[in-house]
Batch of 2 targets.
Target 1
Amino acid sequence: MDEIFGIPAPLLFGQLLLGLINGAFYAMLSLGLAVIFGLLNIINFTHGAQFMMGAFAAWMLLNWVGLNYWVALILVPIIIGATGVLMEWLMIRRLYKLDHLYGLLLTFGIGLIVEGLFRNEFGSSGLPYQIPPQLSGAWDLGFMFLPVYRGWVVAFALVICLATWIVIEKTRLGAYLRAATENASLVQAFGINVPRMVTLTYGAGVGLAALAGVLAAPIYSVNPQMGSNLIIVVFAVVVIGGMGSILGSVITGFGLGVVEGLTKVFWPEASATVIFVIMAIVLLARPAGLFGRA
């Protein structure tokens, strides 16, 4: 199997793998955005900065404290998620009864401040984060070499996305969350502390972004712009899948990652814009998104 459609097989499958990697990050980040928007109706433009903070937190734990990648996978979402809880408690909850624009402006401003602070402290050149020894090397699949770490990222992201969907759609906690989006007063009448649930939900969405940052640290250089470079595409993914749709975020994230990767093979000039073209087409045909509700 030397060529497929006139394209060398290693090149085609390499770009397909790259698309799956990007799709994994699109899915995890858009999943966090969908969780936050679905319950809080806040368009969280700080999400890219929180993704970046996750990568930097993993780097700090390794270089300043000596805690490895596996510990960072557990600690970083908790630490960065806690900063999200604090942010929701101090600022965001004051905007719930206002127009969406206020939440967007607040989170966009906070994202710029956070990125500026990290750029001032660490510069813009990027810091390396070593792949853990257990996940180094590559598998020979015959038609291509699959880096072990990249295969791990795709598999781990799929598990996290599936687990989040199960929690939201198939558990009692998820039923409370979905009910609170429809009628918070009624849910509170049953003894559920809705404000606390909302705060923890925001923290969980931030934790998902931070977890994606830990996964991204060994692949991309850890730098203050890594979140802002990704967040615009992620918002396009969320819009295409449907604002607030968990399933839509996961399927659209992975799907558009693959489409972007294949476009780099067959039409490289369009690879930077293909997702936005798809977004425009979807919005014209179905304004609520592929999986969204009007």
Note: The radius of gyration is 19 Å.
Target 2
Amino acid sequence: MLAMTKKWIFSFVLFLLVTISSNAQSIFGKWHSFDEETNKVESVIEIYQKNGKAYAKIIEITDPTRRDATCLKCKGKKKDKPILGMDILSGLTKDDDEWNGGTILDPKNGKEYKCYIKLLDNNTLKLRGYIGFSLIGRTALWKRADL
């Protein structure tokens, strides 16, 4: 009986460790985005999975004066909609160690860009938005918010 209990406990602990490890190496979760000029946390973005693709929405804006901001320069359905709660990353699919094939919206200028994201380490996400070729674009690093 004691040997069976030890096996069960060992199996359970091993399962937990594998689960925690795999979650820590995932793009999914909450991330801090930073203001390019001040390098201060600008927002919290949640990356989630839907139908096998990655999406992200803004779930917190740190500047209290911007919390009710709308996307004035956006086009289509997102025009004049609240930025808080808005999906800004859409339709990325996993390709080896990066997610690509989707778009990212910059709510400040209302423009959508092709993009890819890649986990650099458990707590750093590289995001590259670009027009045409990935050589012509901008890179941002997000830090995991739910540590």
Note: The beta strands are 29-34, 41-50, 53-61, 87-95, 98-106, 111-121, 124-130, 137-144.
